[in-house]
Amino acid sequence: MSLQTIDEFAKNLSPSVKKALTDASVASTEGRKKCLAAAYPEDGRVMRLRELANAIKSLPLSGLVERAADSLEKNGAKVLFASDAAEARETILGILEAKGAKNVLKIKSMTTEEIGLNEFLGERGIDAVETDLGELIIQLEHEKPSHIVKPAIHRTRRDIAKSFESHGIAEYDEDPQHITLAARKYLRKKYFSADAVVSGANYVLAKEGALVLATNEGNARFSMAGAKTHIALVGFEKVIPSARELAVFLNLLGRSATAQNSTVYTDFVAGPGKAKNSPEEMYVVFLDNGRSRILRSEFSDILKCIRCGACMNRCPVFRLVGGHGYRAVYPGPLGIVLSPLLAGDKIGEYADLPKACSLCGGCAEECPSKIPLPDLILKMRDLVKTKSLKVANDIGFKPWSAVASSPKVWRAAVPLNRLANLLPVDSLRIGPLGRWLKTRTLPKFRGGEFRKWFKKNG
Ligand code: SF4
Q1: Closest C-alpha residue for ligand 1 atom 4
Q2: How do residues 31-68 score in pLDDT, each as one tens digit?
Q3: Which ligand 1 atom is at minimum distance from the Cα of 312?
Q4: Measuring from atom 2 of ligand 1, which residue has the nearest CA?
Q5: 60-79 burial by CB neighbour count: b if 16+ within 10 A, else e?
Q6: Using CA positions, which residue lies closest to atom 3 of ligand 1?
Q7: 336 contacts 354 by C-beta, under 8 angstroms
Q8: How far is the CA of 53 from the centre of ligand 1 (A)?
Q9: Sheet (strand 281-287) strand order
Q10: Which of 95, 108, 198, 375 has a beta carbon 3.0–4.6 Å from 132's, enabling a disulfide?
């Protein structure tokens, strides 16, 4: 993950990656528009659906999560709660170790990305293999997703063919169909040797006690058929009341995400052993990781996100930078709001993100959950400004105030500031400090001279 600010990242991005990003994002936005217009030609129908989605996502979550947990347990699943990323990782590791699981299949999940699960398991000798093609492509290159729906959006088919060749998956062949077939062959072996499967969930149905997984490649079904244990890590905002409300989201998700009337597969997982060859055990880990805090804040609307990616497809900044420039799991307008919030005390590290927005309002026009993204981005600008100033004040003024509030310490310290004259100021003329010093000359420190003068002449 890049450590540069988003501006620096954009400057250094190669033209071919920029083109890949722009082409794919523009095509997605146009596809979404056409797909929704074809499905709902009547005036105002799409807007009504979006309003309905927003209303469902506005229902109080605490009761829904409780109900979902009860229903899931009635269906035979074990339900656990994790307050933060560390607890979620340990919980999942504990289950896998208890089962002696070494080979894990992953079904695409941004929530597991959020907690850095693959790397964590890898360091403990558990091999977690991504079964979604886009996720597999970036996993092979030790990259993070560049987009929440199309994780390898920044990669061309030539890049992928080279990568497959270097990992011994296939001979160099940039035909997309051949790439897909090679990945399929590679993954088949993994399916047969899997001990467990880890997924997220697009939705959790509180009444039915079921997880809903929307995929395009059938990898969820394949993964479930091979493994004995299924662990689902789910942000608690994914809970909706029942299958009735699900219809609203299924009508919006595929169209907003990939310009499809529906994703190719929509799997309902209502407890272990319900389908032939399905896992014998099922664990659902509800993740908080800052969500309760966000829910109580002025940013609670961001939890209505259904992870369709439409806002980033439309965003003029994302189209030129891609997801890696945002230095966090969630990019684009969604990430500008969510990433600093999830960072908690480290919010200052993302202070540049809210500025990476022209406030064109395109994201709000796309969002199927009608999240007022530009308003939230403006609020985030205020928040990071306050937090960054606080950090600067803490660093700059706390030591100063400790010295200045004691006359004795102050008197002893003032002559010492002459030591600052020994600083190699010329070699510090780099970066922002260099630009600041270009038009300024630092005077010599003359600590204590006034006191000496005053003693003599005063
Ligand atoms: S914020 Fe809205 S448009 Fe963006 S990913 Fe979430 S639901 Fe989709």
Answers
A1: 311
A2: 999 999 999 999 899 999 999 999 999 999 989 999 99
A3: 4
A4: 367
A5: ebeebbebbbebbeebebeb
A6: 367
A7: yes
A8: 12
A9: 78-82, 281-287, 229-235, 196-199, 103-106, 127-130
A10: 108
Q: Are strands 196-199 and 103-106 parallel, antiparallel or unpaired?
A: parallel
The pick from 56, 303, 307, 375 for probing ligand 1's pocket by mutation, whose C-beta has the most ligand atoms within 8 angstroms, reads 307
Structure tokens at 454: 């005053």
Nearest CA to ligand 1 atom 6: 305
| pLDDT tens per residue across span 181-212 | 999 999 999 999 999 999 999 999 999 999 99
The dihedral sign for the CA sequence 353, 356, 361, 363: negative
Written as one string, the DSSP assignment of 392-404 is: HHHHHHHHHHHHH
* Residue 37 Rama label (left phi>0; alpha psi -120 to 50; beta): alpha
Q: Is 335 exposed, middle or buried (0-12, 13-18, 19+ CB in 10 A)?
A: buried
Reported as a single tens digit per residue, the pLDDT across 356-401 is: 999 999 999 999 999 999 999 999 999 988 876 555 555 556 777 7
What is the predicted ipTM?
0.98
Cα of 399 from ligand 1 centre, angstroms: 43
Task: Give the separation between CA 220 and CA 135, rounded to whole angstroms.
Answer: 13
Q: Which of 89, 141, 83, 92 is nearest to 115 (CA)?
A: 89
Q: Which of 163-167, 299-303, 390-394, 441-445 has the lowest mean pLDDT?
A: 390-394
The reply to whether ligand 1 has any atom less than 6 angstroms from the CB of 367 is yes
Measure CA 57 to chain center.
Answer: 19
Count of Cβ atoms closer than 10 Å to residue 177 Cβ: 8
Is residue 92 in contact with ligand 1, taking CB distance under 6 Å? Answer: no
In degrees, to the nearest 5, what angle opens at C-alpha 317 toward C-alphas 117 and 290?
35
What the chain holds in terms of domains, given with CATH numbers, is: 35-295 (3.40.50.10420), 407-457 (no CATH)
Task: Supply 314's token pair.
Answer: 């439309």
